[in-house]
Design goal:
The complex is a heterodimer of chains A (424) and B (412). Chain A has 424 residues and is α/β, with parallel strands linked by helices. Chain A is built from 19 helices and twelve strands. In chain A, the strands form three sheets. In chain A, strands 1, 2, 3, 8 and 11 form a five-stranded parallel sheet that branches. Chain B starts with 12 loop residues before the first helix and ends with a helix. The chains are: A alpha/beta (424), B alpha/beta (412). At the A-B interface, helix 14 and helix 18 of A face helix 9, helix 13 and helix 14 of B.
Chain lengths: 424, 412
């Protein structure tokens, strides 16, 4: 029996406002709330709500046979809570069916997995906590930002206790191999890799209306795959339903028809965590250079391909260690939001998907102005003249001082009370 | 072709563009170009086309002998050619003041009696049209439209006019009716109109009421610099931001001052240079003083030839805040010497450039922001420099020449 594993991504960055250099040092609010809100409301109204309704109906009509996973970035969850709490409620409803799973991902949809391992861990943990708080269950499968993956990242993810990780079908990795098997990490055999079927995912996401695709046709393609190719991972942005493929193309009807036709073809639906339990690895995959799910080359060039992007990323992650020592809440929040990979993609000369700037240069200028102010604030907390290690020592002493004072005070009160008893 | 300027004696962008375009077109097969200018000096580069100075073309029959002619204009035109052209005099132009050879003394500049010079140029065109063999007439800018129209009427050959600017750009909306009349008549008579940008094309269609099918954009290009390696950037402590061009309302110099003022509020390590001359110069000096930035704001006066490239090369940023610029070739020249550029969205060259910062001319905040980013951020500077250089090296006159050829073929 073949398994379809659907997973849908929701991520939107906080839009930065037009921030001129003469505002550096005077204005510490970086966001264009109207743009952010407008964008997410648009997504919610045209896509998310309809899609959630459709999926809940699919689960009901198929008696729980239809199952799918969601991966929603932390910053997107925050936006939903703020601008469209009804979507959160609707996801909570879906959770009750037991047929959906939430994947873990870096909170800020950041590139921390490439630039800063400890920040990466911190964000993944943050995200997992948030998912648990909202939907009551800790994720066990992992979806990295933009499906970025390498052996190294796999190792980090495995250390954090995840047993499943989603990756993309990149030619340079798979070569002649089919994506329709479960694979494993090159050294850590218990970490299972689920390879996204690039072609079939894109057929739904980008070619649906051109091909006048039907659920019948789609399931028959899958049914005709070779006997032992049993796992078909289909991953895409959730906005495919209603925006990339508008409602009038019949995309929602296509979804609704899927469970029935899948049953007819003896295809079932599975969640990522179920797949890695159900299937043994067909073999290890070794990935030396990071891959992603964007572009023809499936690499990191959309975010790190030019000098502007490199510069911005280097300047940002140079203060990572410092910011992690901070306790200032607004500063920590800005730190997260500024890490969203989208800001760097807007600086790409070739592939600035979703940008709200006219040119990559504008994106860079604006971001660097914001970053300059942010760095000044970090510097104000802990001046750059002090080395990180020295600072760490100082902080430790301060923190320990508190503890020591506390314990001494405790002792003091004890002694006093004893003395008081004696006197009595 | 009828033109008004040709290097090395140029006063503005028109001469540079005429030179580049003809040189690019000369690479094509079956292309012979005769370029007429009001006043030739004899030192023009004639390796790829033939230059005729209208000042050497007789419009009134005078009896003179070979030796005399040779002595007078031999350095610029062969006496035989003079006599041959003399046979083309079919009208009586005694009303025009002519010299001993029956030729008109053109200034070749933009004198006060410009309108008179334009109509004299028309007289020369009649002689040439009667006598010469050609397939197409190409008129550069409004000064030569009447000549082109007259040549078309006489010869019956198709006329193509090349709009390098309109009076709407030059006057900022206060259009001179005489000039407009000349422009409109030229456009109406033309078989096809070429504009240097879509911006200009729009003006030609909307303000001169031309049929859009008759108007095609042929963007300008830039001639490769042969001695590019001679322009070196010496590392300096202070950054230089440059404005280069006529200091007139059209070029938006006051926006440059305001942007400079904003940048200098935040950083002191920058100097601003305004190179050029113009009727707003004093007003701009006043403005810089009023803003209290005169110690960091410098004027060079008019720069010529090599000096232009030298100035551009030592600059760290080149700014062109033009209110209205049909094309604007200088940002391309700045990019050639590896200087990052900021240009107004109201410039024609913005249509073909990507590796430059585009702002609205009035948006001084955006302009200041861009200046600040380039002088403060090496990544920004280097990206614009390297990618800009690559981009500008791919904008070639020969490609523009091919477009012109296509237009020729469509009207012939």
């Amino acid at each position: 029996m073949k398994n379809i594993c659907f997973y849908f991504q929701i991520h939107l960055p906080f839009r930065l406002k037009r921030y001129r250099f003469f505002e550096i040092g005077t204005d510490h609010y970086y966001y264009d709330d109207f743009q952010t809100g407008d964008r997410i409301r648009n997504m919610v109204e045209q896509s998310y709500l309809n899609a959630n309704r459709t999926i809940s109906e699919m689960i009901r009509s198929s008696n729980g046979n239809f199952r799918c996973a969601f991966t929603i970035s932390g910053v997107a969850l925050e936006q939903l809570e703020q601008y469209a709490p009804e979507v959160i409620d609707s996801f909570k409803e879906l959770t009750k069916t037991g047929c959906v799973e939430f994947l873990a991902e870096p909170y800020a949809h950041s590139l921390a997995s490439i630039f800063d391992a400890s920040e990466f861990e911190r964000q993944v943990k943050m995200h997992a906590d948030k998912i648990e708080a909202l939907f009551g269950k800790k994720p066990t499968a992992f979806f990295n930002t933009e499906l970025i993956y390498s052996d190294q990242i796999g190792e980090l993810v495995s250390k954090m206790g995840y047993k499943t990780i989603m990756i993309d079908e990149a030619k340079q990795i798979l070569g002649w191999k089919s994506p329709n098997y479960v694979y494993s990490h090159s050294d850590i055999s218990k970490l299972k890799l689920l390879v996204r079927n690039h072609k079939l995912s894109d057929v739904i996401a980008f070619e649906f209306s051109n091909l006048s695709l039907t659920a019948e046709k789609f399931t028959s393609w899958i049914a005709n795959f070779p006997e032992d190719e049993k796992v078909i991972n289909l991953g895409m942005g959730y906005e495919v339903f209603g925006i990339t493929q508008p409602a009038h193309t019949g995309i929602f009807e296509f979804l609704k028809a899927l469970p029935y036709h899948a049953m007819e073809q003896q295809i079932t639906f599975s969640l990522p965590s179920e797949l890695s339990k159900k299937f043994e690895s067909a073999g290890p995959l070794s990935v030396n250079h990071p891959i992603s799910w964007v572009g023809n080359n499936n690499d990191l060039t959309p975010w790190t391909g030019n000098d502007l992007q490199q510069e911005a990323l280097n300047k940002l992650y140079a203060v990572s260690e410092r910011v992690q020592m901070c306790t200032d809440k607004p500063l920590l929040l800005d730190w997260l939001i500024l890490q969203s990979s989208d800001h760097f993609r807007y600086m790409s000369h070739k592939d600035a998907y979703g940008t709200n700037y006219d040119t990559p240069y504008e994106a860079f200028m604006n971001y660097m102005n914001v970053l300059a102010d942010f760095l000044e604030r970090v510097d104000a907390q802990y001046p750059t003249t002090i080395e990180n290690e020295e600072l760490n020592e100082l902080l430790k002493t301060i923190n320990q001082q508190e503890k020591e004072i506390e314990s001494l005070e405790n002792e003091l009160t004890k002694v006093r009370s004893r003395k008081a008893k004696k006197e009595n | 072709m009828f033109g008004w300027e040709f290097p090395p004696h140029i006063l503005g962008g028109l001469g540079t563009a005429s030179y580049g375009l003809t040189k690019g077109m000369a690479l094509q097969e079956n292309m012979e170009i005769t370029f007429v200018i009001p006043k030739s000096h004899g030192d023009e580069d004639q390796s790829f086309l033939k230059i005729i100075g209208a000042c050497n073309v007789p419009v009134v029959w005078k009896d003179s002998d070979w030796d005399h002619v040779n002595q007078r204009i031999g350095s610029q035109m062969h006496p035989d050619e003079y006599f041959w052209l003399r046979n083309g005099i079919k009208y009586d132009y005694h009303r025009i003041y002519t010299n001993d050879l029956g030729c008109i003394d053109f200034s070749g500049r933009y004198p006060d009696n410009l309108i008179e010079e334009i109509s004299n140029y028309e007289a020369v065109a009649s002689v040439l049209a009667h006598q010469m063999e050609f397939d197409i007439i190409h008129s550069h800018d409004w000064l030569t439209y009447p000549a082109g129209v007259f040549a078309k009427q006489i010869s019956g050959k198709p006329l193509v006019i090349h709009v390098h600017a309109t009076d709407f750009d030059r006057s900022g909306g206060k259009v001179n009716p005489v000039v407009y009349g000349i422009e409109k008549r030229g456009m109406d008579a033309a078989d096809h109109i070429m504009t240097v940008s879509d911006l200009t094309r729009k003006i030609v269609i909307e303000k001169y009421h031309q049929d859009p099918r008759k108007v095609t954009t042929v963007h300008n290009a830039v001639d490769p610099l042969e001695d590019i390696d001679l322009f070196k950037k010496t590392p300096r402590k202070e950054k230089i931001v440059t404005f280069l061009g006529r200091i007139t309302m059209q070029k938006g110099p006051e926006y440059f001052v305001e942007a400079a003022y904003r940048v200098l509020q935040k950083t002191k390590n920058v100097r601003f240079v305004m190179a050029g001359n113009g009727d707003m110069m004093n007003a701009i000096i006043d403005l810089a003083a009023k803003r209290g930035i005169a110690d960091r704001f410098h004027f060079t006066g008019f720069l010529k030839g090599r000096q232009v490239h030298e100035m551009l090369a030592i600059s760290d940023v080149y700014v062109m805040p033009s209110v209205s610029e049909p094309f604007g070739i200088s940002p391309l020249e700045a990019m050639q010497v590896g200087t990052p550029t900021i240009i107004s969205k109201q410039s024609g060259c913005a249509e073909i450039l990507t590796h430059t910062i585009k702002t609205d001319y009035w948006d001084i905040d955006a302009m200041a922001d861009a200046i600040y980013a380039i002088v403060k951020n090496p990544a920004m500077y280097n990206s614009l420099r390297e990618l800009g250089l690559e981009e500008v090296n791919n904008i070639r006159w020969s490609d523009a020449g091919l477009k012109v050829r296509k237009i020729y073929e469509s009207v012939m």
